[in-house]
Structures are given as structure tokens and as C-alpha cells.
Amino acid sequence: MPLMPKRVKFRKSQRGKLKGNANRGNRVTFGDFGLQSLEGGWLSAEAIEAGRITATHSVRGEGRLYIRVFPHKSITAIPAETRMGKRQGEPEYWAAVVQARHDSL
């Protein structure tokens, strides 16, 4: 089951800017290995869940897995063949905002 917040203050969120490098959460603090994002973007809850399943399948129960991103952002979409200008659509899925890695690492 994909991750999503239990409660939110607002159902719909604005898109925001995807610029800059990560200043926090860009070091491996738990364990010995980690995945690092080379570009900024949105990481959907389904993609996080698929990565978790693949990682747990590959380690076969040996060791621990820490997921340090959580999808707080609701991504909306309007239905196909809808005329322009009818406000923002309904939330389709949840995503985590991921910044690019820091260049000095």
C-alpha cells in the first residue's frame, strides 16, 4: 500500500519550484549504503513502494532498510478532454519532493 499522510490541512498544494541542491538529508547516516538523487523532482509514493519491495527482495532479510523520504505533496490532474479554465483538478497521487544532490559530496 503506498504511503500517504494521515491528515492534511489542505487537500491541494501548489506546484512549487524544483531548484537548488539538497542541504539536509544528503549524507548516509543509517547503515553503509544509500541511493542519491542526481536531479530534483517528484518521487511518487508508488515509486517509493516499488523501490522498497525491490530492496527488501534483494537483501533477503539480511540487514535493515531505512526510507528517509515521505510523500507529503498531493499531485492533482484534470480528466482528459476537459476544457481549459475549470480550476485545479482532484488529487491523483502523493509525491515526495526530492532535491538534487549537493556538488561537494
What does this structure look like?
This protein is an alpha+beta fold and 105 residues long. 14% of the residues lie in helices and 17% in strands. The chain is built from one helix and three strands, in the order βαββ. It has one helix at 45-59, and strands at 41-44, 73-77, 90-98. The chain has a three-stranded antiparallel sheet. 5% of the residues are buried. The model has no long low-confidence stretch (mean pLDDT 90).
Primary descriptors:
alpha+beta; 105 residues; 17% strand; single chain; 14% helix; 1 helix; three-stranded antiparallel sheet; globular
Strand-helix topology:
Layout: E1 41-44, H1 45-59, E2 73-77, E3 90-98
Antiparallel strand pairs: 1-3, 2-3
Q: Could you write a compact summary of the structure shown?
A:
This protein has a three-stranded antiparallel β-sheet.
Characterize the biggest β-sheet. Answer: 3 strands, antiparallel
| SSE order, one letter for each helix or strand | EHEE
Structural class estimated from helices and strands:
alpha+beta
User: Order of strands side by side in the largest beta sheet?
Assistant: 1-3-2
Estimate the mean pLDDT confidence: 90
Radius of gyration: 16 Å
Percentage of residues in strands: 15-25%
Instruction: Count helical runs.
Output: 1
